[in-house]
Amino acid sequence: MQEWLVPYTSTIISFGVIAALLLIQLVIADIAAIKVRHLPGAPIEANHANFLFRAARAYANTNESITAFILLALLGLLSRASPEWLNIFAWVYVGARLAHMLCYYLNLQLLRSMVFGVGVVALFGMLGVGIRAWF
User: Fold this and answer.
1) pLDDT of 41-59, one tens digit each?
2) Cα(112)–Cα(45) distance, rounded to whole angstroms?
3) What are the residue ranges of helices labelled H in 36-78?
4) Rounded to the nearest 5 degrees, what angle is found at the Cα of 37, between the Cα atoms of 32 and 41?
5) What is Dmax (Cα atoms) for the chain?
6) Predicted pLDDT of residue 1
7) CA 119 from chain center: how many Å?
8) Residue 49 has what DSSP assignment?
9) Positive or negative CA dihedral for 27, 22, 99, 40?
10) What are the CA-CA distances from residue 84 to residues 10, 12, 62, 97 (Å)?
């Protein structure tokens, strides 16, 4: 590893963890679909009482925000932003995504919304740290 990346090891590891989390969500959604014999490509009924719907939404929601996470982490890395803050915000995002997934699976709607907000705050933190590195 390049020496300048060493302080960002934690952020780099978070890439692998969030990728693994996304993969786990995909597998859970696929298993849920197989279990109820869902026809691939057919719409899933929008019903929070339906685990397949919740599993598909948990996966889709992580998929929707992971691009921002990757780009903001790269901004921080390539800008040589504060490694301490970038590492913290990266792991807060990962933790929030894990909690969001579990809340979706358990149908804990209010808590799910709260941890989603924590994840968004972490992304804004990563943005701020990345921008701050330029000034």
Assistant:
1) 899 999 999 999 999 999 9
2) 20
3) 51-78
4) 85
5) 55
6) 78
7) 8
8) T
9) negative
10) 9, 13, 24, 20
